[in-house]
Design goal:
Layout (H helix, E strand, L loop, with lengths): L3 H15 L4 H8 L3 H8 L7 H10 L20 H13 L4 H16 L8
Helix pairs in contact: 2-3
């Protein structure tokens, strides 16, 4: 039997826990049974490509990350992950002009030697 289900399961479990989610939370998020999430995490089920994509979207990663036999730090774990996730959610959809202004403002704040850019 392929090692791929075990690799996928380990990555799903790691990313789910880093998100602060329970198996029930993840199951509800993607419309899957709790039993199936448990089977996937234990490497006892081979998820379809569609399921891998759904899991990746819910876990804020690329589908390929679930297939890697190595840990990929996508976001810091715990509460920092939630902060980054919330920030990303708020930034999606803003204009390029506003995003560039925010990046410049952040860089200025971190350097504290430049004047804030005009908006």
């Amino acid at each position: 039997m392929s090692r791929l289900p075990k690799i996928i399961g380990r990555q799903v479990r790691r990313l789910r826990k880093a998100s602060g989610w329970t198996q029930a939370d993840l199951a509800e998020q993607i419309g899957m049974s709790l039993d199936m999430i448990g089977r996937i995490e234990r490497g006892q089920a081979s998820p379809s490509i569609t399921t891998i994509v759904q899991l990746a979207r819910s876990l804020d990663c690329e589908p390929a990350h679930l297939l890697m036999n190595q840990d990929v730090e996508l976001f810091p774990s715990g509460s920092m992950h939630q902060s980054y996730s919330q920030l990303y959610t708020k930034l999606v959809g803003i204009s390029d002009v506003d995003l560039n202004w925010m990046i410049d403002a952040l860089a200025t704040t971190l350097n504290k030697t430049k004047k804030l850019p005009d908006r």
